[in-house]
Design a protein that fits this description.
single chain; 280 residues; mainly alpha; two-stranded antiparallel sheet; two-stranded antiparallel ribbon; globular
């Protein structure tokens, strides 16, 4: 039960981090601090699942409202074949890739994936894979959010089945895989060293396997990912109200201000850290 609690606790903490990342630009109605506190003192798998469900409701209510799509229970459909919305399909496709990565790590450590700690055991299912996805789902979430904000995919990257369920063209798949690769290749500090996220998963799975066989210490403290935006509300307003003279005095070209203001009106713009420092 403690393992299950640690898995879901880590998941909720990362979801909360994503919400605070989004809060730098959007209105967030409910964050998950209360659920983080609640799960620390709860007992029993059903109670853990209940708190996870409350956190999921709040999390997806915010995200679906911000991104402007709705589908399924709680505003989000987890079943891949039920993914009618394009945005839904992106999340589901990403989770499928994550499941493959987690499965590979678990198999490499010699762990039986048909027995889990949070997800129920059922014929043909892999509850341990589903369990181990949970702490890392936020990596897919921020990848998809970034893709949607930056309009990475176009209509040509989507297709559909005869039942009008969303699929991806080869170009869409290629773009999705590349964006996920960029996220997982982000270097993170873990136990005093710099690793990629896929390596972190491998390390933590091996530690988990050693915990089960030799009762060695097991710590699922997920390394922090710095989620800093370059398009916060304050930065947007500052640029929108800035004159061309002020902009040029900060070392920028006149034309670049027009371009950025134009993109702000369209709902999408990007600044590099060097430019942000000049604005301060």
């Amino acid at each position: 039960m403690e393992i299950g609690k640690e898995i879901i606790s880590s998941k909720i903490k990362r979801q909360n981090k994503v919400l605070h990342y989004l809060k730098q630009r959007y209105e967030i109605r409910n964050t998950l601090e209360q659920q983080i506190k609640d799960i620390e003192t709860t007992e029993g798998v059903e109670s853990i699942r209940g708190i996870e469900g409350i956190a999921a409701n709040r999390y997806w209510e915010n995200i679906t409202r911000i991104l402007g799509f709705e589908s399924g229970d709680n505003g989000f459909t987890h079943r891949p074949m039920s993914a009618i919305e394009r945005e839904n399909s992106l999340f589901n496709y990403g989770y499928g890739i994550l499941a493959g990565m987690v499965r590979q790590s678990l198999n490499g450590a010699g762990l039986e994936t048909s027995i889990g700690y949070v997800h129920e055991i059922a014929a043909g299912k892999e509850p341990l894979v589903y369990d181990w996805q949970e702490p890392y789902r936020f990596l897919i979430d921020i990848t998809v959010i970034r893709m949607l904000e930056n309009k990475v995919l176009t209509s040509r990257d989507y297709g559909h089945t005869k039942d009008w369920l969303i699929t991806f063209t080869p170009s869409g798949v290629e773009k999705m895989i590349e964006e996920i690769r960029l996220t997982f290749n982000t270097p993170v500090k873990f136990k005093g060293k710099s690793y990629r996220w896929d390596t972190v998963i491998d390390i933590q799975v091996r530690e988990f396997a050693n915990h089960l066989t030799d009762n060695k210490s097991f710590d699922l403290s997920i390394p922090e990912l710095k989620l800093l935006r370059t398009d916060t509300v304050n930065i947007r307003e500052k640029i929108k109200n800035m004159s061309y003279t002020e902009w040029k005095a900060k070392g920028h070209s006149r034309g670049s201000l027009w371009y950025i203001k134009h993109n702000i009106e369209k709902g999408n713009f990007k600044l590099y850290q060097k430019s942000i420092k000049k604005l301060k």
